[in-house]
Specification:
Elements (H helix, E strand, L loop, with lengths): L4 H10 L3 E8 L4 H10 L5 E7 L6 E3 L5 H8 L6 H10 L5 E2 L10 E4 L21 E2 L3 E5 L6 E5 L1 E6 L2 E5 L5 H11 L4 E8 L3 H6 L11 H9 L4 E4 L6 E3 L4 E15 L2 E2 L5 E2 L2 E13 L5 E2 L9 H21 L3 E6 L8 E6 L6 H10 L7 E6 L7 H11 L6 E8 L19 H5 L3 E9 L22 H4 L2
Parallel strand pairs: 1-2, 3-18, 4-12, 20-21, 21-23
Antiparallel strand pairs: 2-3, 5-17, 6-9, 7-8, 7-11, 9-10, 10-17, 11-14, 12-13, 14-17, 15-16, 19-20, 22-23
Helix pairs in contact: 4-7, 4-8
Length: 470
């Protein structure tokens, strides 16, 4: 278990998984190019030591590949999903930081001294509406219950004291803001946490948990130790004490500005629209802090890896409870970690695979494509998956198509039903978007003898030093 981001980065250094860029690098487009190029290779952690004109260094690639996810959880491919499930099932309550000054509040900047322009906030693409904070965790509270939510939401730099943000109305931060508005409040408080223990960030995209879940307790379960918290300086929110930066904000329900576009997890630009602004009240940070950056956009980028493990674990747990012989799940990063799911299982009865397909379609992940294979297929090896589709399925007979099912509102292929001329707000339309879903049963026909598989037994265990040395 890592105490903070710095301990994790030190482990990455020991693994030879870090590069330092000492030359000046421009936050306007150049950081985005560097990150994109790194994702096409081995995805190292990248320190940008000298972002031009900024007061602090930046670090990217923290979630660059699956190997880093396993490192963050101190797990293997064989143990990661169960470790995630066990952590969620055994929450640990947070504790308050007991020292005199929490690390994340070693430096406090308030009022007129706040200047977001000092932060190395990147503009990733020429088509982006501006510079965006994309690696932050937003902490807000339910205005009725006070239960904290911690989730990933994007923030657009408007000026040195103002940010735009986007939270879907069915996400908890969006719900919290809408509840506060309905209660007659003119604003709502939140905090943006940047640069924390990576395991806490993997908890941000959790699916399948209730709105009354305390995310800090779930994080504690995943970490195997309580999260240390500290009270913010100007807002009624508690934040992880070992974060690099905390930006304390107040969402202004009476002011909107154009927010977007930005390349989203779908690989497409979301269009700009009027959204509420967040006014920055205070910025706190550690001495010599690191500002974490994260490129979003066409898969596969860091945000897909960040979602991959929690989404897989949630789907695996959801299906395993209904179908005990489910053995593995892959929620493909290339499908935005949402649209494409592969499940392996052993069928005990005719039609088990079809039931798994329908159950996966009905999950809150809302996949468009579900493939079920036998447990001799590695769900993470798409060559094997495609081989199973090619020779264990019959088009038409082994496919299921379901029309007009709920869709992600950011999926550009989704569509709206006929609104009969009624004009609706963006938040209402987001809840109405629909799509279709396709399932493929790529398992052997149940109850029939299998064809002999042409393989070379023992090849995995074969000692082949000449190959290993290459």
């Amino acid at each position: 278990m890592y105490k903070d981001l710095r301990e994790f980065l030190a482990e990455c250094e020991l693994a030879g998984d870090v590069i330092h860029v000492a030359r000046p690098v421009d936050c306007d487009l150049e950081i985005g190019k560097a990150l994109k190029k790194s994702y096409e290779g081995r995805c190292p952690v990248i320190y940008f030591d000298d972002p031009k004109g900024k007061a602090f260094p930046a670090v990217g690639g923290v979630f660059g590949n699956r190997a880093k996810a396993l490192r963050a959880f101190e797990a293997t491919e064989e143990t990661i999903h169960q470790k995630f499930i066990d952590g969620i099932a055994n929450p640990i309550a947070p504790v308050m930081y007991e020292g005199d000054v929490a690390p994340c509040q070693e430096v406090v900047v308030m009022g007129d001294e706040v200047d977001l322009n000092k932060l190395p906030i990147p503009r990733f693409s020429p088509n982006d509406g501006g510079a965006f904070i994309t690696a932050g965790l937003t902490v807000s509270k339910d205005p009725e219950t006070g239960v904290p939510d911690v989730g990933h939401y994007r923030y657009q730099y408007h000026d040195e004291k103002t940010l735009g943000y986007m939270a879907q109305p069915f996400h908890r931060f969006g719900k919290n803001c809408n509840k506060a508005l309905a209660m007659g409040k003119k604003s709502w408080e939140a905090a943006i946490v940047i640069g924390g223990d990576p395991v806490m960030h993997y908890c941000g995209p959790l699916v399948g948990v209730s709105d009354d879940a305390n995310d800090y307790e779930l994080m504690g379960g995943l970490r195997g130790a309580p999260v240390e918290l500290v009270k913010c300086k100007t807002v009624d929110v508690e934040v992880p004490a070992w974060a690099e930066f905390v930006i304390e904000v107040e969402v202004d329900f009476e002011t909107t500005r154009m927010e977007g576009p930005l390349g989203e997890f779908t690989g497409y630009q979301t269009p700009a629209s009027e959204k509420w602004v967040s006014r920055v009240k205070c910025v706190t940070h550690r001495r010599n802090p690191l500002f974490q950056v994260l490129l979003t956009g066409q898969p596969v980028t860091e945000n897909h890896i960040l979602k991959n493990v929690p989404f897989e674990a949630s789907m695996y747990n959801f299906l395993k409870q209904q179908f005990p012989t489910v053995s593995a799940v892959n929620v493909l990063p290339a499908g935005g970690v949402q649209t494409e799911v592969v499940v392996s299982m052993t069928q005990r009865n005719y039609g088990d695979a079809r039931h798994v397909i329908l159950a996966a379609m009905a999950s809150n992940l809302r996949p468009k494509y579900v493939v079920v294979v036998d447990d001799d297929i590695d769900v993470h090896n798409l060559d094997q998956v495609n081989w199973a589709i090619a020779y264990r399925s019959i088009p038409g007979k082994d496919t299921i198509i379901v029309e007009d099912v709920p869709s992600s509102p950011l999926d550009p292929s989704s569509y709206l039903p006929d609104t009969h001329g009624v004009k609706l707000e963006w938040s209402q339309l987001a809840k109405m978007r629909q799509n279709g879903a396709l399932g493929i049963d790529a398992t052997f026909p149940f109850g029939l003898p299998h064809e002999a598989i042409a393989d070379v037994p023992g090849w995995k265990e074969y000692d082949f030093p000449e190959l290993d040395e290459r």
